[in-house]
Amino acid sequence: MPAVVEPLDFESIYQEQLAYFQSSMGDGWTAVLESDPVVKLIELAAYREVMLRGRVNDAARAVMLAYATGSDLDQIGANYQVERLLIDPGDVKAIPPRQPAYEADEDYRRRIQLSFEGYTTAGSEQSYIFHGLSADPEVLDVSAISPGPGAVTVYVLSRIGDGMASEVLLANVAKVLNADEVRPMTDRLTVQSASIVRYSIVATLTVLPGPDASVVRDAAQAAAESYAKAQHVLGQGVTLSGIYAALHQPGVQRVDLSSPSSNLAVAIGEASFCESIQLTVAEQSDD
After folding, report:
1. Is residue 71 included in any domain, yes or no?
2. What CATH number did the domain enclosing 161 receive?
3. Strand locations in 53-184 (E)
4. What is the pLDDT of residues 120-170, one digit of tens each?
5. Does one domain contain both 200 and 262?
6. Does 74 fall in a domain?
7. Full residue range of the structural domain in which residue 104 is found
8. Nearest to 157 by CA among 191, 200, 123
9. Residues 200 and 162 in one domain
10. Are 159 and 139 in contact (CB under 8 A)?
11. Which of 236, 232, 224 is CA-nearest to residue 268?
12. Is residue 22 part of a domain?
């Protein structure tokens, strides 16, 4: 954490203000009792100072790329001349109206951080990734490798469906990457879709006596979906330990995982895709 973001400690601030008040009053006040109105006022003052320092911490984090979110992150992106992508324009005439959907903070943050790589004309790996991610709102992830001298292969993962990139999307990305200011003249560029490695999560959950089994199952389902979504990027494998961690929510006594049966490794041009999550709740056990 940056030094400008200070830790908040109510007790130390309270003791500091109490000591200052005692020194100001001399022998005129010695009743340090919780019920004393003066003590209550000092506690209130200390609490308000903690809140103020917390707000200062929030303001400091709001101008840092690593911590900024929402409109604060938009302002940082403007400094780098990187605009948040519009994923879905929405439809105000639909019933109910569909609001516009914009690029998620983490995806936007990644592109901002890569933006300086976009200035190079040397055809670096990160430069191809930045321009590929910025080429089309449908692009979820990009990886670039050089299989041989002068050859560059760029893999594109779509955010639509299972991640297979359409020919239209590949053409849009190729057009951006082949621009004179992006691709060096000596690079032979190939843009292709990521290969999708499909899998399903099938497990039986034994829950502890007491919790509502459906609530426990729903929590495990949501956690498994979140984990699968996080792993749905290029070159990111799926581990059994990650699945177990997601499914072992409060109230779960044991997880019996049927599928997958082993860790799922993916190459740099591949991405995993979870086709389904099937969770069965077993009878509660007292063991």
Report:
1. no
2. 3.30.300
3. 86-88, 101-102, 139-148, 151-158
4. 877 789 999 999 999 999 999 999 999 998 899 999 999 999 999 999 999
5. yes
6. no
7. 86-193
8. 191
9. no
10. yes
11. 236
12. yes
**Phi and psi at residue 13, in whole multiples of 5°?**
-65, -40
Do 155 and 214 have their domain in common? Answer: no
Whose structure tokens read 């008040």? 21
Tell me if 200 sits within 8 A of 217, measured CB to CB: no
Task: Note the pTM of the prediction, 2 decimals.
Answer: 0.80
Q: Check whether residue 252 and residue 239 sit in a common domain.
A: yes
84: left (phi over 0), alpha (psi -120 to 50) or beta: beta
Token duo for residue 93: 């005439």
Residues 255 and 229 in one domain: yes
Check: CB of residue 103 under 8 Å from CB of residue 69: no
Q: Domain boundary residue among 193, 224, 247?
A: 193
Q: 211 near 251, Cβ under 8 Å? A: yes
For the record, the structure tokens of 172 come out as 């849009």
pLDDT digits (tens, 9 = 90+) for 103-118: 999 999 999 999 998 8
| Total domains in the fold of the chain | 3
Tokens standing for 231? 């792993």
Which H, E and C letters describe 241-277, residue by residue?
A: HHHHHHHCCCCEEEEEEEECCCCECCCCCEEEEEEEE
- The burial class, CB within 10 Å (0-12 / 13-18 / 19+), for 3 is exposed
d(CA 237, CA 222): 19
Whether residues 202 and 246 share a domain: the answer is yes
Please give the Cα distance from 58 to 155 (Å, whole number): 38
Residue 285 — very low, low, confident or very high, per pLDDT cuts 50/70/90? low
Residue type for 184, please? P
Q: For residue 208, how many C-alpha atoms fall within 13 Å in the half-sphere facing its CB?
A: 8
Asked whether residue 205 falls in the same domain as residue 264, the answer is yes
**Mean pLDDT computed over every residue of the chain:** 92
Show the CA angle centred on residue 51, arms to residues 47 and 56, nearest 5°.
145
Beta-carbon neighbour count of residue 162 at 10 Å?
16
Please say whether the beta carbons of 46 and 14 come within 8 A.
Answer: yes
Residue 275 lies in a domain: yes
